[in-house]
Design brief:
Shape: globular
Enzyme class: transferase
Pathway: Glycolipid biosynthesis; glycosylphosphatidylinositol-anchor biosynthesis
Number of helices: 20
Strand content: under 5%
GO molecular function: alpha-1,6-mannosyltransferase activity; GPI mannosyltransferase activity
Strand order of the largest sheet: 1-2
Subcellular location: Endoplasmic reticulum membrane
Radius of gyration: 23 Å
Largest sheet: 2 strands, antiparallel
Pfam families: Mannosyl_trans2 (PF04188)
Helix content: 55-70%
Length: 473
């Protein structure tokens, strides 16, 4: 991709080609740093909160009201604060958030609840029982508020981490790199995940941990091109740390297992030179780091399965999935209770949801192709990050409830990078060898800007629908 080649120079010497004179002054406008990102994040959250809380009170579904013990509105500061917090909890606890909140309050009781993160529920339960103990609220409301606090905090932190991740991936001059990183981070602020990044869902926590895994992996990759004496040890260290973060992400969402493909590709890259690598101490250290990181990623996915196995499969009465190989409660409940499976969602009734998900599916697959045209030193890193993203797009298209791609894509960085680079292109379409999207036409700056506007509108409309328990979810 020519635009990425322009902005991502393989050398730190000199700047990318660009306009000169007055145009250059305009192009070098002040870039937002982390401080400005926090301000913009808070402004967006205020808009989103107002849109949700100001929505009509009549609900399409009354599940949330039945879940909580709500108080009547009475006068007085304490009572007004309680009423306000209860209203926020009600508006944000919709759809799957009911399962997350229920599991936080009383644990995973019913089998189908294991489709929702065991670790996230444990974390929100801790926050509700320890940090929110003094609040004069119904206990279940506290658990909902805890989930909301966790999601918004994780979302803010993931915005900052994405900013530094993009700067790490783009070793271009400071001002230009900062501007691209700021744009990518702002796209994550207004992500099509929208309200799901604020509600008691696992998406924000997953994004934070997945971005941290990729950031630390990029630090490891830099050591593979370093000549310092301890480069192999430092590489292995940061590779293992990235495995820790991917493993933690796996505790939140099962699709974090896809990030393990990064280490699979690393291991496969050693196959042609394996006999020689096994005689080199540095290569052995790096291979050990890759193996440990991959193992940690797998453990993060497997641990909740093990907890469920101990609960359901060690007594006299065992569930059908206990004899499966591997015995995964997550796979079973997704298939049995939520009808998730290969082509199961391909029905005429669901056709509108495929159209809703199509832009994000195309963007995820496009950024995979474009990442392969990156600079030499960082081509490996960008390609590694693109593979989980492409796998996610394929799985969403064939096996998931396809509309959820609009929220789970929020935890994958390359599509933010693609749009940011395209928005900052001087002019003309963003193409590779003269072609863009063969189906949708060429994807250039104008299309990228309209995509960003569309994301904002979608997030606001989605917030109003979500607050009244209306699809899509």
């Amino acid at each position: 991709m020519d635009v990425i080649r322009t902005y991502v120079s393989p050398s730190r010497q000199g700047g990318p080609a660009g306009p000169r004179g007055k145009a250059a002054v305009s192009d070098g406008s002040h870039a937002s740093g982390p401080g400005n990102l926090v301000t913009e994040f808070l402004q967006w959250k205020i808009i989103l909160f107002v849109a949700i809380c100001a929505s009509p009170t009549a609900d399409y579904d009354t599940s949330t009201v039945l879940l909580f013990e709500l108080s009547d509105r009475v006068h007085g500061p304490a009572a007004s604060l309680r009423w306000l917090l209860e209203r926020v909890a009600v508006k944000f606890t919709r759809w799957d958030a009911i399962y997350f909140t229920s599991a936080s309050a009383r644990g995973h009781i019913y089998e189908q609840e294991w489709a929702f993160s065991w670790a996230f529920s444990k974390l929100s339960s801790f926050v509700a029982r320890v940090l929110l103990l003094p609040l004069p609220l119904d206990p279940t409301v506290k658990h909902a508020i805890a989930g909301i606090l966790i999601s918004n905090t994780a979302h803010l932190l993931s915005v900052i981490v994405l900013y530094y991740l993009v700067k790490e991936l783009l070793p271009s001059p400071s001002q230009r790199g900062s501007r691209l990183a700021s744009t990518a981070a702002l796209l994550h602020v207004v992500s099509p995940g929208g309200v799901f990044l604020s509600a008691p869902y696992g998406e924000s926590a997953f994004a934070l941990l997945n971005f941290l895994g990729m950031l630390t992996y990029s630090w490891a990759t830099k050591m593979r091109y370093s000549t310092i004496a301890d480069a192999g040890v430092i590489d292995a260290f940061w590779t293992i740390i990235s495995g820790v973060f991917f493993g933690l992400a796996g505790l939140i969402r099962g699709n974090a297992l896809l990030s393990g493909s990064i280490f699979v590709l690393d291991a496969l890259s050693y196959l042609p030179q394996l006999p020689k690598a096994l005689t080199n101490a540095t290569d052995i250290t790096r291979l050990a780091g890759i193996a440990i990181a991959g193992l940690l990623t797998g453990i993060g996915f497997a641990l909740p399965q093990y907890v469920a196995y101990q609960e359901y499969c060690t007594g006299d009465e065992q569930r059908p999935w206990c004899s499966s190989m591997p015995p995964s409660i997550y796979t079973f409940v997704q298939r049995e209770y939520w009808d998730v499976g290969f082509l199961r969602y391909w029905t005429l009734n669901n056709l509108p949801l495929f159209f809703l998900a199509l832009p994000m599916l195309m963007l995820l697959s496009l950024s995979d192709r474009e990442a392969n045209a990156a600079i030499r030193v960082f081509r490996t890193t960008l390609t590694r990050f693109a593979v989980p993203q492409l796998m996610l797009a394929v799985m969403a298209l064939t096996s998931f409830h396809v509309q959820i791609i609009n929220r789970i894509s929020s935890g994958y960085p390359l599509w933010y990078l693609l749009v940011a680079v395209t928005v900052h292109a001087a002019s003309g379409p963003t193409t590779r060898h003269g072609s863009g999207w063969s189906v949708l036409g060429k994807f250039g700056r104008t299309q990228a800007e309209w995509l960003a506007r569309g994301i904002i509108v979608y997030a606001l409309v989605q917030a109003g629908l979500y607050a009244n328990f209306l699809p899509p979810a």
